Amino acid sequence: MDEREIQRAGYPLTIPDTLLRSEAMQRACTTRNFREIFRLVNRRTGSSHAAMAAAIGKMTSSRVSDIIRGVRGVRGQQVIERIADAFGIPGDMLGVPPRPWEGSPKSTGMDRISDEAMGEYRPDALPVTNPPVHLTVTQASSDFTLLGRWNSDMAAMDSFRMADRQLGGGHLYGAVTHYLNYSVAPRIFGTENVGSAAETFMAAAALTEMAGWMAHDSGQDLRARRHFEHALPFAQAGADHALGSHILASMSHLALQMNHPHEAVTLARSGQEAMKAGPFIPALTARLHAMEGRALARTGHEAASRRAIDASAEFLTRPPCEPPSGWISEFDMASLASEEALCLQDLGQYSAAARKAEQAVAMRSGDRVRSRAFGQISLAVIRAKMGDLDAACAIGDELLESCRTLGSLRITQQLADLADALHPFKAEAPVAGLLDSLLMVNRQRSLLLAGIVSLDTVGETP
Predict the structure, then answer these.
(1) Could you tell me which InterPro entries the record lists for this protein (predicted)?
(2) Which of 135, 176, 145 lies closest to 159, judged by CA?
(3) Cβ count near 242 (within 10 Å)
(4) Which of 77, 291, 421, 445 is 20 to 30 A away from residue 129, measured at CA?
């Protein structure tokens, strides 16, 4: 009996070390591919679906079967932690805190970000403001030999951004990382004889941050985190101080998605402090306050969350001191309405959340396919929780056709969340029909997502 099995005495199921250390299991855990994790446990240990479900708890054998077939996904920190505990997978392999049976705590890589990016960082102080990140701003290079390349970088960024809004990050991740590796990296690391300029570092920061979002959209949150951490030092070397704050806002969003709300508060507040060093950019400042509000709502700090959201709305009404950088994504009233709806949903204020979600959907035009789909799913989930089944089903029917081809695992996961919200009402005829449609669409999407990107075969970006 190995040490891990001794530590887990009393647990009904512990996968053997040979399986845990196998390349297939290591890869599946790194990418949080729960379909493959479940398949490996089922086939290599002989554990039945019922035994796996019983070990995990709060899960049926039919759901285990659905996960293995790719019909359902796994989402939520608590579920992932139960899976780690059920099979004896150390927390750091799945990006969750060390499990109680692991013995003395050890660093997981999830309770901190790189020293280079954050310095002395402590995410456990709420609601006290944490030390800010100091972004070092260098003077722009007087060498204009890179101007043409820089303009090409900006054009590439705009093209990737427009395509991402309509298609989803899974379709584009490989293209962005290829551009970084073969167009930007040679200029940074000296293999291409064009000198060094702040503009190149700005392009590297912005495109690496974009790669992080695309990895996140493809369900690869640990990889997304690494991209964001790599992007921040590039922003420090560039001439656009606001780009660093923009990256911190993205890191705050990702921390919240990974269920680390205290970390999300720290990152948002650090971005706000960094913004004080340069020209006032209302939309970016508003985004940072919205991220703080989201995280505070998740921790139950309702009054503080409300203040942060109100501040975000107030900042959006102010004019900028100068035109914002093209490297920074826009944040508008539709974005704020979407974030506020999620805050209110976390706080259990469903009627107010529904109104904000309706505003967000109404303000999203047809070219923002993914954002509109996110808003529709949120609205349908909220309506289902309110018991307004007719409205939930009508919204669900409308969104299904538009999201069939979106290369976004987040859409697949949120469709599964909608199915979970509707499941208690499955006896109702409209609900039963929508659940069947959701099942069919997610089966189609699982085939699509399996073929459009293989993140483990794509080279790392700078």
Answers:
(1) TPR-like_helical_dom_sf
(2) 176
(3) 24
(4) 77
Q: How far apart (Å, rounded) are the C-alpha atoms in residues 442 and 214?
A: 20
Comparison of pLDDT for 292 and 414, the residue scoring more:
292
Q: Is 355 exposed, middle or buried, given 0-12, 13-18 or 19+ CB atoms closer than 10 A?
A: middle
Residues 6+ positions from 84 with CB-CB distance below 8 Å? 90, 91, 93, 94, 96, 99
The DSSP string of 308-339 is HHHHHHHHHTSPPSSPPPTTSPP--HHHHHHH
Q: Domain 353-454 belongs to what architecture?
A: Alpha Horseshoe (1.25)
Angle between helix 409-422 and 429-452 (nearest 10): 160
Peptide bond into 98 cis (omega under 30): no
Q: Which of 245-259, 283-297, 352-366, 404-418 has the lowest mean pLDDT?
A: 404-418
Residue 105 pLDDT: 38
Tell if the pTM clears 0.90, that is, is over it.
no
Would the pLDDT of 195 be above 50?
A: no
Segments of the chain assigned to CATH 1.25.40: 353-454
> Which pair of tokens denotes residue 425?
């009402």
